[in-house]
Amino acid sequence: MHLTINIVFFGTILILLYIVIDLIRNKGRNLLRKFIFYTFMFYFVYVLQLTMGGITIPPLEARMIKVQWIPFFFVNDWVMHYQANGLDFYFWNSVKLTFYNLIMLVPFGVYLALLFQVKQISKAALMIVILSLAIEVFQLILSYFGVIWARGFDVDDILLNTFGGVIGFMCMRVAMRFRRRIQHKY
């Protein structure tokens, strides 16, 4: 029998403990920035849960893991599902998963601009690619050793995550510029 440990539950406990300690040690200093950082920590824990699906104890047996290296293969999935059964559950599930991969790192792009004050889109894109690549590599390694349920490495996930993260970054940069202009006028 295998037990899957929910990352969000334990992550939330650790984050709440950190928040209490941080607020006691640094009373009242820059509360808005702290709040944004705390939301980033919760977001990161949720991304871990979404991408890893929890930790399995004891580890599952090692198995072959799917690696998908072809860029934009998700379009082929859509076409295959559509040709096989039209607009059925599997087609829409494939579209939904693609959309989820697109939006998953949008908040990370926002945090890069807002919390970490990254100014250049190239720097933000690089950081987003690195995070997305790290997620895929960890999925591959942890799946191989049975620590998480079987997940694969998919280059489309990296492309979609990066595109979404860059969209989030650009939207936040535009919002920040707009806010500065309004503040400057008044």
UniProtKB/TrEMBL annotation:
The record's section on InterPro entries has: Teicoplanin_resist-assoc (IPR053150), VanZ-like (IPR006976)
- The UniProt record lists the keyword Cell inner membrane: no
Q: Which Pfam families match?
A: VanZ
Question: Domain VanZ-like, which positions?
Answer: 35-174
Presence of keyword NADP: no
Q: Which UniProt keywords apply?
A: Membrane, Transmembrane, Transmembrane helix
Q: Which domain of life is it from?
A: Bacteria
Transmembrane segments annotated in the record for this chain: 6-24, 36-57, 97-116, 128-152, 158-176
Kindly give the PANTHER family that the UniProt entry links to this protein. Answer: INTEGRAL MEMBRANE PROTEIN (PTHR36834:SF1), MEMBRANE PROTEIN-RELATED (PTHR36834)
Q: What is this protein called?
A: VanZ family protein
* Species for this entry: Oceanobacillus profundus
